[in-house]
Design a protein that fits this description.
- There is one protein chain.
- With 190 residues, the protein is an all-alpha fold.
- The chain contains five helices and no strands.
- Helix 1 (17-52) packs across helix 3 (114-126).
- The longest helix is centred in the N-terminal third of the chain and has 36 residues, at 17-52.
- The protein is elongated and about 70 Å long.
- The two termini are 22 Å apart.
Length: 190
Amino acid sequence: MSHPFPHPTHAEDQPLGKTILTIHVLHRGFQTGALLGLGTGSVRAALLRRASRPTSPSSPPAITTPATPLAPTSPPKPALPAWPLLLRFTGTGALVGTAVAGLMLAGRMYGKETIEWQDRSWRLLEHRGQMEVDAFSVAGMAGGVVGLVAVGVATGRSGVDKGMVGWRGRVGAVGVGSLVGLVGYFGWRG
């Protein structure tokens, strides 16, 4: 994220201070939202999987009364794989996280002098660890797109069709890739 931006020796000379800080905050909001969406999606997928399990034969039959007649039963729907649900939740979380981070940045930096934007941006560019996190995260985002395309090719779905993941799932693949990049960074730094 930060590599293409100029980085002078003094903070007061930092060009594009607002742009750099805004991109950084939105990127982190995207990652945070993706993480929360992935967690929420995981819980949802686990609950759906548990609910779709057939009841054990040792369970007592349901008690019905004349007031509640038995509803006609339809054949059970085939269970969808969990990954489309996870990608959709991750994509939604990533977008919500980006929006919330943008609002928080606007609230925090409202009325601040230009030098304050420049100083924060300069410090981000000066921090070697932050630059490494950005590089791994962006590489992971690209990997998420490649992974989604690979799954589409492997399953015979052109780019993983809209019915399976939709635009939220595509954004989710980028979010998961970003998180995988972050985990890769932590493993690399050890």
